[in-house]
């Protein structure tokens, strides 16, 4: 296979990743190569891997507490989990994904980068996944499902006080106020939309953050 044509690295990447920048570069290479070959990334996405996918994922870091145990559900190509973990080495990361070819890619990335991330095959709502993952502080998700459905899937992973941090688009953000009663009934509290990643230029985005109540 010929080497993939890599997107231009933005100057902001150095500030986002610090001394982990070489690992971030390698992750982009893997996304542009194996990620495309395995069908995890569309070829048209390669030119904007940095801004649209990698730095966009790093923006989530603003909403994640220091030293948190993080599980990235429906991780797919490792977004936002892997860029988040590279930018925040204080975090402990588990990647949960049901599809075998995606799990294989996630394991490949972890091995290639020499990371000890835990890769779990399964769906977040499955009891075997909940038992394997154990208690976590934060669940992250990107383009997995509408919020009420997502909450239903990840509720078993969220101990009281743990947070769900989900990347959302502007249309989904506009719907959040109307979903608060349903999300509250599902056991969530302190539901808010936050703008994150202002220092990342075009990669800035929005997340919805909510906390599992003690009920």
UniProtKB/TrEMBL annotation:
Gene3D superfamilies from the xrefs? Vaccinia Virus protein VP39
- Which EC numbers characterise this protein's activity in its record? 2.1.1.-
What PANTHER family is this protein classified in?
S-ADENOSYL-L-METHIONINE-DEPENDENT METHYLTRANSFERASES SUPERFAMILY PROTEIN (PTHR31760:SF0)
One example GO MF annotation: rRNA (guanine-N7-)-methyltransferase activity
Give the matching Pfam families.
GidB (PF02527)
Report keywords, A-Z.
Answer: Cytoplasm, Methyltransferase, rRNA processing, S-adenosyl-L-methionine, Transferase
What is the predominant subcellular site recorded for this chain?
Answer: cytoplasm
**What does this protein do, in the record's words?**
Specifically methylates the N7 position of a guanine in 16S rRNA.
**Locations listed in the record:** Cytoplasm
Q: What is this protein called?
A: Ribosomal RNA small subunit methyltransferase G
